[in-house]
């Protein structure tokens, strides 16, 4: 399975939280830092691929041009890719780049699921509405989006369980 998302979405923090390690994936102080493709072996079997964050700030009109060719090639030709976790920033919701990525993934029939990060950054009084809005922006049902927080641990064990299930199929 692979994890993908816009730079600064909280991908490294999430991978670290999933692995229960503080510095497995490097958390970048500077957005857009994670450029390498990192692989993590899961003890129960399978591999988690941490793909480079796509596009930051300068969003071109043609979203495709903002994605490294490597990501496209990887996602479209990897036969043993069982799931792509598409991270969306829960605080700010799906950006144009995220929507472009989801469209591309759907066009290419890549199995995927949306996970919203930084749950702790959304005020509890705004959560019900934000969850609906984020899901609608991603064109999925609200119940199909898993919300997580690397900071508080919300949703981490649920996601860990799903990772095990995906990797055992
Ligand atoms: P990446 O570029 O997608 O790998 O994102 P990072 O993991 O480096 O995180 C980007 C910024 O968001 C960092 O300042 C993190 O500390 C912060 N961050 C990541 N996850 C969370 C979270 O769950 N809650 C909060 N409050 N901040 C987070």
Which properties best describe this structure?
169 residues, alpha/beta, Rossmann fold, six-stranded mixed sheet, 6 helices, 6 strands, binds guanosine-5'-diphosphate
Provide a quick synopsis of the model.
The chain is α/β, with parallel strands linked by helices and 169 residues long. Helix content is 34%, strand content 15%.
In CATH terms, the superfamily is: P-loop containing nucleotide triphosphate hydrolases
Reported CATH architecture: 3-Layer(aba) Sandwich
Can you tell me the CATH class?
Answer: Alpha Beta
Major sheet, described briefly?
6 strands, mixed
**How many E-type strands?**
6
Radius of gyration: 15 Å
Order of helices and strands: EHEEHHEHEHEH
SS summary, helix count:
6
Beta-strand residue fraction: 15-25%
Q: What ranges have pLDDT less than 50 throughout 5 or more consecutive residues?
A: 56-64
Query: How do the strands line up in the largest sheet?
Result: 2-3-1-4-5-6
User: Outline, from the CA principal axes?
Assistant: globular
